[in-house]
Structure formats: structure tokens, C-alpha cells
Design a protein that fits this description.
The protein has about 190 residues and is mostly helical. Helix content is about 50%, strand content about 0%. It has five helices and no strands. α3 runs antiparallel to α4. It is elongated. The protein starts with about 25 loop residues before the first helix and ends in a 13-residue tail after the last helix.
Length: about 190
């Protein structure tokens, strides 16, 4: 098929092609491109991303009559550094939580900026609402960067631990190995 000057391909009329029914997909979606273009143009100026708010109510009821607060759950294991494995577990958990939270906070900053940019500027400045939204979201982006730094520093902490205490770790590793297999003494018969 040859292309016209506007980049579209010329086709024979649908009625002349054998086996083509006007009720097929091709005919149904003939104007889909125009519809999508109009939709994108209409939405382009005031895009507001959807937000889902999830509230988890995990409070236990009826336990204890003192009215005390329930114990908060932590993302990290308890800071019990009694062995190299516990140090590694703590650092790896901190790193994984930092990476995950930094991604979530960065996404939250983007969503916050998008929502705040849709609020009209009280002074009527042209890009005033976007500027104000960017100033607010900048602080949340900095929080995401700091969480990312915390994840990097957690990995660096374990690396420094391995380097500084290599001798002690290796000394314990040799003792931790199981007993060697008994060797056959062929001289004793």
C-alpha cells in the first residue's frame, strides 16, 4: 500500500475487500485515533492522578483493661547484635526497608505535586500553582533521597563491620565448621 503525504496508508474501500464486514473491529474503531487525540488534548492541561487511601485498623479490642497502647510494629528486627548474622540481618532489613520506602515516598511526592498543581493560585499568576506545588513536593523528594541514603549507609555499615572485624569473624567461622570426615588410616591393619 502506498502512503499519502500526511503519512497515512491508502486503502481500498472496505466494501470492495472480500470477507470484510462493516461490523468488524476495523469499522468499529475507525475513529478511535481521533477520539484518543481529543481525550488527551482535553485532559492534558489539568491532569490529576488518582489517589487511593488505605486505612488499616489493627488495634486489638478487649485485651487488657488498663487502656494502654498496643505495641507498635516495627519494620526492623530488634537491635540485638550478638552475632555477625544478626548484624547482617539488621543491616539487610534496614537497607531493604530504606529502598522500598524511598520509592514509595518519591511516588508520593509526584502525586502530591500533581494534586497541588491543580489548586488555583490565589494571586492568579500563570504558573503560580505549579511553582507552589513544586516547593512543597521538593521537601518530600528530599525525604525520599534521605531514605535512599539510609539504605546505602546500611549496606556500607555491614561492609565496614566485615572489614574491621574480619579477624574475629574468620576465627569463629573455623570453629563453626562441622567436624571433618574421618580419614581412613591404611597403615593400621
Amino acid at each position: 500500500m502506498a502512503q499519502t503525504t500526511n503519512g497515512q496508508r491508502r486503502q481500498a474501500p472496505a466494501n470492495n475487500r472480500p470477507g470484510v464486514n462493516p461490523q468488524n473491529k476495523g469499522a468499529k474503531f475507525a475513529n478511535a485515533g481521533a477520539a484518543v487525540g481529543g481525550f488527551v488534548g482535553a485532559v492534558g492541561g489539568s491532569f490529576v492522578p488518582p489517589i487511593n487511601v488505605t486505612v488499616n485498623n489493627n488495634r486489638s479490642r478487649g485485651q487488657g483493661g488498663g487502656g494502654g497502647r498496643s505495641q507498635a510494629q516495627s519494620l526492623l528486627p530488634p537491635p540485638d547484635f550478638g552475632s555477625p548474622a544478626l548484624v547482617r540481618n539488621y543491616c539487610n532489613t534496614l537497607r531493604a526497608a530504606g529502598v522500598t520506602l524511598s520509592i514509595e515516598v518519591a511516588m508520593g511526592a509526584e502525586i502530591l505535586e500533581g494534586i497541588l498543581a491543580a489548586v488555583p493560585d490565589p494571586e492568579g499568576r500563570t504558573f503560580g500553582s505549579r511553582i507552589r506545588a513544586r516547593k512543597v513536593a521538593r521537601k518530600m523528594r528530599k525525604s525520599a533521597d534521605d531514605l535512599r541514603s539510609a539504605a546505602k549507609n546500611a549496606a556500607a555499615c555491614y561492609s565496614a563491620f566485615q572489614q574491621e572485624f574480619e579477624e574475629e569473624i574468620n576465627r569463629v567461622r573455623h570453629r563453626a565448621r562441622g567436624p571433618q570426615q574421618p580419614v581412613m588410616n591404611w597403615a593400621q591393619q
